[in-house]
Amino acid sequence: MAERAAARLHLSGLCFFLQLLTIVLFATFVRYNPESSKLCSTEPSCNQKDPSPTLGYPRFRDAHLRALLGFGFLLAFLSRYGVGSVAGSLLIVAFTIQWAILAQGLFYFSQNSKIYVSTQSMVSADFCTAAILISIGAVLGRVNPIQMLLMALLEVPLFACNEYILRSFLMVSDSGGSLTIHTFGAYFGLMVSRVLHRPHKDKKKEQQDVGHQPDVFAVVGTICLWIFWPSFASATTTQDSAEPWAVLNLYFSLAASTLATVILWPILYEEGTLQVAQLQDATLASAAVMGMAGEMLSTPFGALTAGFLASQLSLLSSRFLSPILRSRLKTEDTCGVHNVHGLPGILGTFLGTLLASLATADVFGDRLELVFPLVADGSRTTAEQAQWQLLGLVVTLLLAAFGGGITGALLRTKMLRTPPEKNEIESKALREVDEDGCDHQAGREERGTIV
Amino acid sequence: MAERAAARLHLSGLCFFLQLLTIVLFATFVRYNPESSKLCSTEPSCNQKDPSPTLGYPRFRDAHLRALLGFGFLLAFLSRYGVGSVAGSLLIVAFTIQWAILAQGLFYFSQNSKIYVSTQSMVSADFCTAAILISIGAVLGRVNPIQMLLMALLEVPLFACNEYILRSFLMVSDSGGSLTIHTFGAYFGLMVSRVLHRPHKDKKKEQQDVGHQPDVFAVVGTICLWIFWPSFASATTTQDSAEPWAVLNLYFSLAASTLATVILWPILYEEGTLQVAQLQDATLASAAVMGMAGEMLSTPFGALTAGFLASQLSLLSSRFLSPILRSRLKTEDTCGVHNVHGLPGILGTFLGTLLASLATADVFGDRLELVFPLVADGSRTTAEQAQWQLLGLVVTLLLAAFGGGITGALLRTKMLRTPPEKNEIESKALREVDEDGCDHQAGREERGTIV
Amino acid sequence: MAERAAARLHLSGLCFFLQLLTIVLFATFVRYNPESSKLCSTEPSCNQKDPSPTLGYPRFRDAHLRALLGFGFLLAFLSRYGVGSVAGSLLIVAFTIQWAILAQGLFYFSQNSKIYVSTQSMVSADFCTAAILISIGAVLGRVNPIQMLLMALLEVPLFACNEYILRSFLMVSDSGGSLTIHTFGAYFGLMVSRVLHRPHKDKKKEQQDVGHQPDVFAVVGTICLWIFWPSFASATTTQDSAEPWAVLNLYFSLAASTLATVILWPILYEEGTLQVAQLQDATLASAAVMGMAGEMLSTPFGALTAGFLASQLSLLSSRFLSPILRSRLKTEDTCGVHNVHGLPGILGTFLGTLLASLATADVFGDRLELVFPLVADGSRTTAEQAQWQLLGLVVTLLLAAFGGGITGALLRTKMLRTPPEKNEIESKALREVDEDGCDHQAGREERGTIV
Q1: Which residues 346-405 of chain C have a CB within 8 Å of chain B?
Q2: Which of A361, B69, B366, C293 is the most exposed, having the fewest neighbouring CB atoms within 10 Å of its CB?
C-alpha cells in the first residue's frame, strides 16, 4: 500500500511538473495569431489588400468548425482506446494537446521566436493526439499512467518531425494522415510494445486481445466516428473547394467497409457473433486507407473498392497475422492497431502512390494544383510525385521504428518499470471501474490471468 | 449447427454479391458531380456567370454540413431501431446508402446515362435510409439479416419512385418527409409485418412490445435526435433562407411534445414509470408531424400545438390502437412505428394540407415562392395545392401497401423463411449480446416466450 | 397507492396547465422575427441598405448552428444532472425552453407588445435552461417533479431579470455566463436547498454526495461537453470575429483543468480511484471560470493558468468546504454545484474584473470595441469598467439569494411538501430505473438510507 501511495504521488508530481512546464513554455513562446484579431478580412472596406474579401469570413468559420469537429473526433476515438481507462486516456489527451501545440509550433509557426496559434493549430494538435492514442492502443493494459505520459512526451516531437519532413520537405500529399497518423502511430506503438516485451508476464495473457468490448462504448464510438471523421480527415486539404471528394470518398469507403466485414467475418470466425466493435474496426480501417487517397480518388466506385479491400485486409490480418506477431515477433498488440491502422495505412499509401502516378490535369482539372501543386506547376512529373509519396512511407516507418525503440528502452528503465503486480494495481489507479461489472477490459484481463 | 453455419455463409455470400453489384453499378454509372470540382463559384473572377458569386461558397459548405448532420441523425436513429441488433442495423445502413444513391440517381441525376453525386445526394440517401429503418422497426426480431437485406433491396426503389412522384410530378411540398419518410416507411413495414404473420409463432409473443428498452441507448438516442434532427429535417427546404421557420418550429414542437407526454402518460398507464424511451417516441412523433408543416407554419404557437397533439395521438394510439392492430388485424409492430411514425405522419400531412389551403402571400412574403412555387407563380390556387398535398398522402399509402405486400410475400417464400427455432438463432447471429445482460430486447423476447 | 396515484395526476394536471399557458401566451405575444423571412440580406440586389450584404448569409447560418450546438450542449449537460432522473430533467428542459422564450422576450424582444423570436432567442433560452439545471443539481433527489417544475417557473423570470440588469443596465461583459449562468444558478439552487433543509431527513443521508456515478453517462457527457461547450460559451460574443479567442481560451483551459485534476486528486483522496466524473467536474469548472474571461484573455498561457486554478479550487472546495456547508450551514448540495459552478464562477468574475482593469487598446486592437464598447468610446475608464464588472457579481449574488429564499419558502408550503416516504416514491415515478441496477444514484440513496 505504501508503494501504491508513492506511485500515486509520483503521478501527481509528474503531472504538476508537466503542467508547469507547458504553462512556462506557453508564456514564453505562444501567442494568439495576430491576424485573428484583425477584423479586416471580414470588412468590405479592406478590399484593396484581399482579392476576395467576402471569402475571409466563411473560411474563418470553417477553421473554427474544424477545431470543434476535430475535438469531437478525438473524444469519440477515446471510446475505442480508452474503454478500460477513459480517465487515463483523457489525461493523455489533455497533455498531448498542449504539448503538440508547442512541438508543432517549433516546426511550423515560428516567427521572431514566437509560436502563433489559431484554430488551425488546434486541428494539427488533434491529428497528433490521434497518433498518440493509436500508439498507446498497442500497449494499453501493460503500461502505467506515468509511462503513458512519458511516451506521449517523447512521441509528440517525433510525430511533429515526421509530419514536417513529409509535408514541407518531401512535399508528400497526405491530407487525411494515412502515413502521418495511422502508419506512424501504429508502428511506433508496436515498436514500444516489442521492446517492453516481458516473457513471463505476457505469456499468461495470450488470450487477451481475442475478445472485444461488447458494450455501449463501441456503439457510441462508431456513431461518433461516422459523424466526425469524414469532416476531420478532410480538414487539412489544401483548399476548401477540394474537400467534397475527400468527404464523399470517405463516406462511400465507410459504407463498403462495413458491409464487407459481414462477408469475411462468418468465414474466418465460425463461432462467435459479429459485434459492433468489429464494425468500428472496419470504420477505422476504411478511414486509414482513405487518408491519403481521399482527395485523389475521382470516382466513387474507387472509394467503394478501397473500403472493401481495407476491411478484408484488416480481418485477414487480425485472424492470421496477429498470432504470428504475438508468438514469433513477441509483440503484443492490445487493441489490434496493426490490423486497424498499420496495414490499412500502408495500403492507403500504396493506393495514394498509384493515384499520384496516374494523376492527369484531364481528370483533376483545377484540383490538380491543390492536391499536387508541384505536378501542376511542372516541377515534378507524376511518376516523381509517386516516388516521393512512397519515400514518405519509408521515412515514416524508419522514424516510427527508431522512435518507438528508443521510447520503449526508456520506459523499460528500472525506475519506471514497476513490478508486474504493482503495475497492475497502478494501471487500475486511474482506471474507471464500473461497480456493476461493466469494465469489460478489466474483466477480460482477469479471466486472461486465470487462464 | 450445420444449418446455422450454412445460414452464416448464405449471409456472407449475399453481402458479397450485393457489394460486388454496387461496385459494378457505381463503376458503370456513378461519377462525381463535375461542378463540385469547378472552383469557379468561389472565385471572384467568374462574376459574369453567377449573379451572386459570394454566396456560392457558403452554399457549398452547407451541403457538406448537411451530409455530416444527416449521417449523425441516421446513426442516432439507429439507437432506437437497433437496440437488439446494432450490428445488423449498421449493415442495413451501409447497404442502403449505396443502393439509394443508385436508385434515386435513376430518377433524379441521370444525364447522358451517368449519375452525378454530390453532398446533396448523400442527404437524399440518408432520407431513404431513415424510411428503411422505420420499416424494419415494424418487423424487427421476426426477420433474419438476409430477409432484412432483401427488404432493403426491394424497398429502396419503391421509396425513390414514391419520392419522385410526390416531388417532381404532384409538386407536393414535403421538405421534412412527413409523407416520404414517416408515412411511407411505417405503412410499408406494417404491410410486410401483416404478410409475414404466422399464427402460432406470434401468439406466444403477444406481450412483446409492451415494454421499452430502459437503458442508455434511449438517452443517447434522444440527445442525438434533439441535436441533429431539426437541422436534418430542414435539409431539403428549397432555399437556405427559408430554413429558420422549419428549424425553430421543430424545436418548439419537440419541447411541447416532450412536456405533453407527461400529461397523458400517468392517466393511460396507471402503473409503470415514465422512461426516456417514451420521451424519445414523443421526439420522433413531433418530428413526423413537423415534416411537412415545418416550413409552412408561420407562428410559434402553431408548432407548440402540433407537438402537443402529436404526442397525445401517439400515446393514445399506443394504448388503444396497438392491441387492436395486433389481435384483430394480425399485424405485429415491434417498435410501435404505427404510433410514432405512421399516425403522426398522417396528422402532419393533414396539418400541411390545412396550411397550404390557408397560404397567402401576405403571411408568407418572399417565402411563398420557395415553399409553394406553383402557388406563387399563379399556376395553382391554394385550394388546388392543398388537394395535391392530400393526393400525395393517397399515393404514398397505396404505394406503401402495394410494395409492402409484394415484399412480404417474397420474404415468405420457403427458401427464405427459416423455421422459427433457427430463425431465432439466426437473428441472434448478428445481434450484439451484452454479456452483462444488457440486451433488454432479447431479455424481453425471452420473457415473452416464457409467458 | 392512492396517494401515489393522486400525485401522478397532480403532475399530469400541472403539466397540462403549464403547456396550455405557454400555448396561449405564445399565441398572444410570440411571432417569428419578420427579418428572418425577408430574404433581402442574402440578395445582392439590396446592397443599398446593408453595407456588407455578403456577410448576412453566413451570419444567419451561424445563428442556426449555434442553436443546434446550444441544444447539443444542453442535452449533454443533462447527463450530469439527470443521471437519476433523465426523464424528469428532459421534462424540465422542455418546459424551461418555452418559458424562457417568454420571460426573456419581455425584457429583450418586446416591440409593439410582441416578442419576436429568432434562432438567437433559442440560444438565450438555452443559457437560461443551463442555469435552471445547475440550480436543480443542488436539490436533486430531495424535490419531486412538481416542485422542480415550480422552481423552474419561478427561477426563469429572475434569471431573465438578472441577465437584463447585467447586460443592458450595468453593461457588464459576460459572454459565456460566468455570472449569469454559473454563479446565479449555483447560489440560487444552494439557497433553495438551505430553505428546504429538514433536520431529520437529511441527517440520514449525509454520505449522499460523496460518491459519483461511475458510468457511461459521465463519459458521454464529458465528450459532449468538450465538443459543444466551447462553441456554446462563445455564442453571444458581440461579433463573430471576436470569437476565436473565446473558443481557443476555453479549449486550453479545458486541457489544463483536466491535467491538473490528476495533480491534487491523489493527494486529497488517498483512497479511491480517479473517475471520469471528476474530469467532467474539471471540464465544467474550467468552463465556469472562462465564461467571463474567455473573450478577454489575450495570451494562451493565461487560459492554461486559469484552467489549472479552477480545477484546484474545485477540488479543494469539494474536499474541505462541502462538509462545512453541509454540517454548519445545513445546505445539502447533491451534485456539488458549489464546487463546480459557484466558486469557479466567482473566480472567473475576479479574473474578468482584473482583465477589464488591464484592458488597453494596444493589446485588444479592434477587439476592444467589441468586448468593452463603453471603454472603447471613452465613456468609461478601464477602472470603472472593472468596478461595474464587480458590481455585477454583487447584484447576481443578491438576486440569487433573494430569489432562492423565496422559491424555497414556496416549495416548503404544506401543499407541496409531500411526506418523506411519498416524496421518495414520487421522485421515482419519473425516474428512469434501469433494471440491471445501473441507476447508481438510486443505489447510492438507498445505501445512504441504510447507513
Answers
A1: none
A2: A361
Of C356, C350, C345, the C-alpha closest to C285 is C345
> Which other chains touch chain C, taking contact as 3+ CB pairs less than 8 Å apart?
A, B
Cβ–Cβ pairs < 8 A, chains A and C: 187
Cβ–Cβ < 8 Å for A296, A371: yes
Distance CA C363, CA A34 (A): 10
pLDDT 10s digits, A24-58? 888 888 877 665 444 333 333 333 333 333 344 44
CA distance C220 to chain B (A): 8
Type and span of the H or E element at B108? helix B86-108
Task: Give the chain C residue whose CA is nearest to the CA of B263.
Answer: C12
Query: Which residues of chain C lie closer than 8 angstroms to A26, CB-CB?
Result: 299-301, 304
List helix spans (H) across B234-342.
243-268, 276-293, 300-316, 322-327, 337
> Of the ranges A230-239, B367-376, B419-428, C278-287, which is most confident?
C278-287
CB C366 within 8 A of CB A37: yes
A touches which chains (3+ CB pairs under 8 A)?
B, C
Mean pLDDT of chain A: 74
Q: Calculate ∠ Cα A218-A221-A225, nearest 5°.
A: 135
Helix ranges, A82-144 (H): 86-108, 119-139
Rg (C-alpha) for chain B, rounded Å, is 22
DSSP β-ladder status, C30-32 and C114-117: parallel
Q: All 3 cell numbers of residue C102? A: 417568454
The region that residue B269 occupies, defined by phi over 0 for left and psi between -120 and 50 for alpha, beta otherwise, is beta
User: What is the ipTM, given to two decimal places?
Assistant: 0.79
Inter-chain CB proximity B23 and A367 less than 8 Å:
no
What's the angle, vertex CA A209, arms to CA A206 and CA A212, rounded to 5? Answer: 145
Secondary-structure percent of chain B, ordered helix, strand, coil, rounded to 5: 75, 0, 20
Q: Give the global pTM.
A: 0.82
Q: Which of B331, B304, B374 lies closest to B197, judged by CA?
A: B331
Which one of A60, A219, A239, A247 makes the best mutation probe of the B interface by having the most chain B beta carbons within 10 Å? A219
A122 in contact with C at a CB cutoff of 8 Å?
Answer: yes
Picking from B125, B91, B130, the residue whose alpha carbon sits closest to that of residue B105 is B125
Burial level of B31, CB count in 10 A (0-12/13-18/19+)? Answer: middle
A299 and B32 in contact by Cβ < 8 A?
yes
- For residue B197, count CB atoms less than 10 angstroms from its CB and return exposed for 0-12, middle for 13-18, buried for 19 or more: middle
Q: Taking every pair of C-alpha atoms in chain A, what is the biggest distance, in angstroms?
A: 74
Distance between CA C284 and CA A334 in Å, rounded?
A: 32
Q: Considering only the beta carbons, identify the residue of B31, B75, B217 that sits closest to A227.
A: B75
Does residue C44 belong to the interface with chain B, where contact is any CB pair within 8 Å? yes
Alpha-carbon gap: C282 to the closest alpha carbon of chain A (Å): 12
Find out whether C54 and B55 touch, Cβ atoms under 8 Å: yes
Chain B residues whose beta carbon lies within 8 Å of the beta carbon of residue C54: 54-55
| Per-residue pLDDT tens over the stretch C360-405 | 777 777 777 777 878 878 888 888 888 888 999 999 999 999 999 9
List CB contacts (< 8 A) between A244 and chain B. 32, 36, 60, 64, 118-119
Please check whether residue C178 touches B, CB under 8 A: no
- Taking only the tens place, the pLDDT of each residue in A10-22 is 888 888 888 888 8
C118-127 pLDDT, tens digit each? 777 887 888 8
Q: What is the pLDDT of residues C193-215, one digit of tens each?
A: 888 877 665 444 444 443 344 46
- At residue A31, what are phi and psi to the nearest 5 degrees? -130, 160
Measure in Å the smallest separation between the Cα of A111 and chain C Cα atoms: 16
> C232 and chain A: CB distance < 8 Å anywhere?
no
Burial tier of B321 (Cβ tally within 10 Å: 0-12, 13-18, 19+): middle
